[in-house]
User: What shape does this take?
Amino acid sequence: MTGKIITIVNRKGGVGKTTLTIGLADALLDDVNMRDAANATLIVAVDLDPQASLTRALLHEPGNVDDGGRLGSVLKAKHTLAAALDEILKDKTAQVDAHVTHRVGRIGFPFALLANDAGGWDIERHCLRKAGGEKKLKSALKSLLLQLKKTYAYVLIDCPPGQTVIAEAALEASDLILCPIAPDYLSFWGLESFDAYLRELFADAGDDRPSARYVFTKWRAKPPAYDPQNKIADEVAHFAPPQQYVTLLHEVGGRPNVPPRAINMPFDPKLVTRLEGAPRPGRIWPFSKTFTSQTQIALKNLAVAVKQELQRG
Assistant: This one.
């Protein structure tokens, strides 16, 4: 199997990288049958952020307010990104799958996770203190991702905010880059420099550079009059090559002679529940009960558009 690497990234925090990662995984799994999903070999989510929001969201068990339960067991066993990278740095033949946690996500539609914790900060800091450490760290992460790509159909990477060496290596290994943005000026003001950074990063890639697309998050169907959402959306809608590398992701299969609609992820109060784990542990938690109807539609459109982008690449 040769899978696809999808990196979810934005230098700004709080724009919905983790929720988009989980939602996309759920949507990609929603159109497969239960037997295939149960094999847990379709998707692996990689938590690249040492703050470990993705890890906690997928391993959290209601009632466990500390690091007990499954989350504690995974971290204690060092089934983490940092441990996997440490082994690969010492031995290039080390196998990353030993550190992957299987059967996470919604009950009945599981996927796999390469968790993270504060050790992710340490391994990057220690590598960068050594001569040639940046090159070695990048090589180790790309080797790790290549292994996962050979096992899973989709490798979804939740990047940390800011700009790190590990995140840059993930970008360089990507088949598709998704950049979630909130429709506010604090998010909008960083887009120009982010686009310039990606153009510089892939300056020598030519036609082999990955597609890069913006996805609005926290979208409101009827924003207040003072809200800048629609004005910002109009600005981003005009982003186009060659002036910009990153452009909006659009729905697939629109009507002829009608401009394609952008994929906007709604502001969804159910996302809080989704990030806190299944409300009834051990019971089937269907896609239709996980998100509001508007979010379900947006996520399904997102999954279709992502598949098309990957086919183009």
